[in-house]
Design goal:
The structure holds 2 protein chains of 2 kinds.
Chain A: H1 3-18, H2 20-23, H3 26-51, H4 59-75, H5 80-102, H6 107-127, H7 129-132, E1 138-139, H8 147-174, H9 176-186, H10 188-193, H11 198-224, E2 226-227, H12 229-232, H13 235-248, H14 255-273, H15 278-292, H16 302-314
Antiparallel strand pairs in A: 1-2
Chain B: E1 6-15, E2 18-28, E3 33-37, H1 44-51, E4 59-64, E5 67-68, H2 74-80, E6 82-84, H3 97-108, H4 114-128, H5 143-156, E7 161-165, H6 173-188, E8 192-196, H7 200-206, E9 209-214, E10 217-222, H8 224-229, H9 231-238, H10 240-252
Parallel strand pairs in B: 3-8, 3-9, 6-7, 7-8
Antiparallel strand pairs in B: 1-2, 1-4, 4-5, 9-10
Helix pairs in contact in B: 3-4, 3-5, 4-5
The chains are: A mainly alpha, B alpha/beta.
Chain lengths: 320, 253
């Protein structure tokens, strides 16, 4: 598939998501918001997990911090948009400071360390009752308007965030930074030896992977109007997001978009049809997909696949 | 001779109780080819690692072009013009050969953008004879090809000093001849070369000067013909029989 065709399909997909209020009921609009939200998270993860090759499980920590940073500043009287911007910068700064320490770990150790951050931040937030409301959660001022208007507003917001992260991904992919991150991903010692400032580049990637999660978190808090620690720092989210990226194609521009869409549509499909076993079935599907498609859905050579299928069909006797 | 561009003063490196490098002092002059020889475990690679910042020095001082570079980070060494190849080749396996070399040009060679870096990389591929493999994955090259790739990548960094860690190990004799020609042509560009080498044939035909390391200490230094008859070197590294053969060979040649 040519790069141009991919951009066209992506644009069409954005149009489909954006137009859901025109042709579908609120349930589907809600699904579209979730798709845009997870696409943004998955694209964010791609900076550190995909380009740089550091398996980060801190997504939920950044998302949750963004929820609280946005909600608290909003409740303190900051206009909604400024609260989101504040959450973005706050989470970005948090990750930049943290990155200098945690990015010294490699491989499994980094994965475990990044996972621990989710728990630490969750515990701090839920213990700091005076500020955060602790386990009781926190109410956020609701956006006024009918349910339809609210849904349309947040659909627009999530799609906008998704497009911003997409644009940043495209720029990074073509830049010196992206090239350096790929070098680190393939051989960090060699990257160091050719003159890549590996520590700085890794901190950049980690910060980029965090800050947009902060934006998404803050927007999510405004959307739902209520947040609590177990919802904001969900372990499921911290695992889901990397899986989406792997499913689509790790370290590519379009992988997270394809992966998030495929994952959420599959989840929806199994959820409605197999109410009891949907998680188990989805888990099995994911394992099979990742096992047989290490390059993700984008890694499949569709043309070869079609050619082989056609060859088999045209000479049925030869296929054994 | 002019002042050396790289100076080591009493450089030490120990790992816990093991003294890998002890009180090494030496200098490299612009444009010369110096061979670093010694038995396995003598500390040759460790010394290169200390110079390029992979290991920090436990003591002593390293100066490059008058600047104190002791305990620099590897990427700083690369940008300053201290390039090295690895004994075990270190490519970016899933990038193309061209991209591998471009990485050296972009980050180590301080090219402003990717396009310039790619152009510079093509020149180095031409120079090392890898042009035909430019678009192949680095992992698809043969060992000799990957050693050449290491050279091309290092050269793209526009080094002033190039440290070659056993670039000929594992190559057959025609491949070695090819590598020798290449190293000579690199030296002709005015790049100072420090070569770690076990093959005395290579050492004798290339080096202007030889340094001998044994148990982390510099035990001898001088021009190649003197080194092969130095009793200390014979005892520590070459062995009686081999030294006699080398001396006969050099007197006949």
């Amino acid at each position: 598939m040519t790069q141009r065709l991919r951009y066209i399909i992506f644009a069409a997909w954005v149009m489909v998501l954006a137009s859901t209020p025109l042709w579908a009921e609120n349930y589907t609009v809600r699904l579209a918001i979730i798709v845009a939200m997870y696409t943004a998270l998955s694209q964010s993860w791609n900076f550190i997990g995909g380009f740089t090759g550091y398996p980060s499980f801190s997504t939920a920590a950044f998302f949750g911090l963004g929820c609280y940073a946005g909600a608290l500043t909003q409740n303190a009287g900051l206009p909604v948009i400024l609260a989101w911007v504040f959450a973005t910068l706050f989470v970005g700064l948090f990750a930049a400071l943290l990155g200098g320490i945690i990015l010294r770990l490699r491989g499994h150790y980094f994965a475990i360390g990044s996972f621990g951050i989710v728990e630490v931040v969750r515990l701090v937030i839920s213990s700091w009752g005076d500020l955060t409301g602790g386990g009781d959660g926190l109410n956020v001022a609701l956006v006024t308007g009918s349910p339809n208007v609210v849904a349309q507003t947040f659909l627009a917001v999530m799609i906008a965030i998704m497009l911003i992260v997409f644009a940043v991904t495209v720029v990074v992919d073509r830049s010196r930074l992206g090239f350096g991150l790929r070098c680190i991903q393939q051989n960090e010692d060699a990257a160091d030896m050719v003159g890549v400032n590996t520590t700085r580049y890794k901190v950049y990637a980690y910060t980029m992977s965090a800050m947009f999660c902060g934006t998404v978190g803050a927007a999510y808090a405004s959307w739902t109007g209520y947040i609590d620690p177990s919802d904001s720092f969900s372990i499921i989210m911290t695992v889901k997001v990397p899986v989406m990226c792997l499913l689509g194609g790790v370290g590519t521009v379009f992988g997270p978009v394809v992966g998030a869409a495929a994952f959420l549509l599959l989840e929806e499909f199994f959820w409605t049809r197999f109410l009891e076993y949907n998680r188990a079935i989805l888990g099995a599907v994911i394992v099979i997909l990742i096992f047989f498609l290490p390059g993700g859905l984008l890694g499949i050579r569709y043309r070869e696949l079609f050619a082989r299928a056609r060859a088999r069909l045209s000479q049925p006797g030869a296929a054994t | 001779m002019s002042a050396p561009i790289l100076v080591l003063e009493n450089v030490n490196k120990h790992f816990g109780g093991i003294h890998a490098v002890t009180d090494v002092s030496m200098g490299l002059h612009e444009g010369e080819i110096v061979a670093l020889i010694g038995p396995n475990g003598a500390g040759k690679t460790t010394l290169v690692n200390v110079i390029t910042g992979v290991h920090s020095a436990s003591g002593g001082c390293i100066r490059f072009l008058g600047v104190d570079v002791t305990n620099q980070r590897p990427f700083q060494a690369a940008r300053r013009g201290l390039a090295r190849t690895f004994q075990i080749v270190q490519p970016f396996p899933r990038m193309t050969v061209l991209e591998n070399v471009a990485a050296g040009a972009l980050f180590g060679g301080a090219h402003a953008n990717l396009r310039d870096a790619m152009a510079a990389a093509r020149e180095q591929l031409e120079f090392t004879g890898l042009t035909g493999f430019a678009d192949r994955a680095a992992s698809a090259l043969t060992l000799a090809g990957r050693k050449r790739l290491e050279l091309a990548k290092s050269l793209a960094m526009k080094p002033k000093i190039l440290m070659l860690d056993e670039v000929n190990a594992g190559l057959n004799s025609s491949e070695i001849d090819g590598a020798l020609t290449l190293i000579r042509r690199i030296a002709e560009r005015g790049i100072t070369i420090l070569i770690i080498e076990h093959l005395m044939k290579v050492v004798l035909s290339l080096a202007h000067r030889v340094l001998v390391l044994h148990h982390g200490q510099l035990i001898a230094e001088g021009d190649p013909s003197k080194i092969v008859s130095d009793p200390k070197v014979i005892e520590a590294y070459l062995g009686e029989k081999f030294a006699r053969r080398l001396k006969e060979a050099s007197s006949h040649g």
